[in-house]
Amino acid sequence: MPVISYANAKGGAGKTTAALLLATEIAQRGQSVIVFDADPQKWISKWADLGNRSDGISVVSVVSPSSIAEQITDARDQADYVIVDLEGTENLIVANALSVSDLVVVPIQGSSMDARGGARILTLISKLEKIVRHDIKHCVVLTRTNAAVTTRAMKAVQDFLCVNGIDVLYTPIVERAAYRDLFEFGGGLADQDPKKVTNLKKARENAALYAAEVLERAKEALPRKRWYEFYKRAS
């Protein structure tokens, strides 16, 4: 029932990886997910075509500016969670999807270009809030970070977000081979072979912590009536 969208006006920010990690973590918990693949690259659709898809995940590949809001609204009644992977730009599909989202996650790498792309989405959210006349909860997740080193560029991005009072997830998404392997071999992290994937245990721990933070924010973002319905469904 919660709708979680991933957006950054710059491509290559790690949106698709972040969206897929959340979807597979939810499915691992035994809950159902509908993923809207609104990115022209269609990486999540290609992931689904590989087979070994985690049970409980359905992928919708065909969307349009005129239909996406209605599609997302209808999907709320069909799954426990709806996840939307949006194009790395600003267009009508992005705006329409954000307007019906309960939570918008803005992935940002440690670069000024990603920060500027993320800032454009945050500005768009602010404009949409005036149109829909309600708050659209949003947060930033830092992506493709180095587990051992914080670069100068990453520190600059963190400082920028802090100064502007932007909600940033405590758990960043660390650069891991296991995450790339999902798009090569399908399935979720639980389906990967620890003998063939380096640091799989750490990747799973990172993904679980990241997903827990996102889901907690998604629950907080639900209107009271829908939260009660979601609670009954989850129980």
From TrEMBL:
Instruction: Read off the Pfam families from this record.
Output: VirC1 (PF07015)
- Domain of life, per UniProt, equals Bacteria
Under PANTHER family, the record lists: COBQ_COBB_MIND_PARA NUCLEOTIDE BINDING DOMAIN-CONTAINING PROTEIN (PTHR13696:SF96), P-LOOP CONTAINING NUCLEOSIDE TRIPHOSPHATE HYDROLASE (PTHR13696)
Q: What is this protein called?
A: Chromosome partitioning protein
Species of origin reads Roseibium hamelinense
